[in-house]
Amino acid sequence: MNITEMLLTNVNSRPKKKIVPKGVVIHWTANERSGANATANRNYFNKPTTVASAHYIVDDKQIIRCLPEDEMGYHVGAQTYSQAALNKLSNYPNNCTIGIEMCVNADGSFAKMYEQTVALTADILKRHGWGVEHLWRHYDITGKNCPAFFVVNTTAQTYTGMPAKDAWTKFQQDVHRFLTAYPQKPQPDVDKCDVELTLTSTGKLIDDVSYVPIRMIAEAVGGAVEWEPSTQKVTVNGQEVSYVNDQGTAFAKTRELAALLGLQVEWDEPRKAVVLKK
Ligand SMILES: [Zn+2]
């Protein structure tokens, strides 16, 4: 298991409030579209207009850490909470839980994403000295149908081939088995990076120079993008950047934009991804 740390810089999703966690809350992204993977969800959380977050996002290829486990995220807020949550957690469970988002993007493998989530969950439980009784579905806390494949029978059948209750029980058993089967499992490796984008879907090559969409990249690291209609100028954090317009999206040279944002650029050939690091 490999965790990529891409901590959020959006203050609206990451209030930097310290918490003492008491449990883990399992979610799904509820986004079945192709490309709605861990990176895309993380970049969504980091948009300045988003007020939502989770500590981890898991797809079939990656586990992304968006928040340190001892910081509060916004993943389980509601008007009212279940009695069990009020008794065992608090009257505002965001302030004592670690959230995991499971991705169900159509171009990913549910089975591999599930396996990675089991490994991650077991790792968190182990580090906190907890058993599976510290696991919650979002549903158990607020009544929301999340993750739907552990709550709603039709969705559970589609993804797991069994009723929702059984699918949730199996998940808990799988985590428990992982916990007990690998009692000496070491801490996971952590890669640090700030933005990661897959070029095939989000960037373009023009004369062998890579270009990336300005707004997506800048907002993924908390930058402010503005477009001035009268002059047609695009600025990032107040500095002008040259761009090409492709069907209404402004693309800048990856290196030029990275320099503006103070990031290093790396090209990951096997995954066809541009990785930007601080
Ligand atoms: Zn949820």
TrEMBL record:
<dbReference type="InterPro" id="IPR036582">
    <property type="entry name" value="Mao_N_sf"/>
</dbReference>
<dbReference type="InterPro" id="IPR002502">
    <property type="entry name" value="Amidase_domain"/>
</dbReference>
<dbReference type="Pfam" id="PF07833">
    <property type="entry name" value="Cu_amine_oxidN1"/>
</dbReference>
<dbReference type="GO" id="GO:0071555">
    <property type="term" value="P:cell wall organization"/>
</dbReference>
<dbReference type="InterPro" id="IPR012854">
    <property type="entry name" value="Cu_amine_oxidase-like_N"/>
</dbReference>
<dbReference type="GO" id="GO:0009254">
    <property type="term" value="P:peptidoglycan turnover"/>
</dbReference>
<feature type="domain" description="N-acetylmuramoyl-L-alanine amidase">
    <location>
        <begin position="9"/>
        <end position="148"/>
    </location>
</feature>
<dbReference type="Pfam" id="PF01510">
    <property type="entry name" value="Amidase_2"/>
</dbReference>
<dbReference type="GO" id="GO:0009253">
    <property type="term" value="P:peptidoglycan catabolic process"/>
</dbReference>
<protein>
    <recommendedName>
        <fullName>N-acetylmuramoyl-L-alanine amidase</fullName>
        <ecNumber>3.5.1.28</ecNumber>
    </recommendedName>
</protein>
<keyword id="KW-0378">Hydrolase</keyword>
<dbReference type="InterPro" id="IPR051206">
    <property type="entry name" value="NAMLAA_amidase_2"/>
</dbReference>
<dbReference type="InterPro" id="IPR036505">
    <property type="entry name" value="Amidase/PGRP_sf"/>
</dbReference>
<dbReference type="GO" id="GO:0008745">
    <property type="term" value="F:N-acetylmuramoyl-L-alanine amidase activity"/>
</dbReference>
<keyword id="KW-0961">Cell wall biogenesis/degradation</keyword>
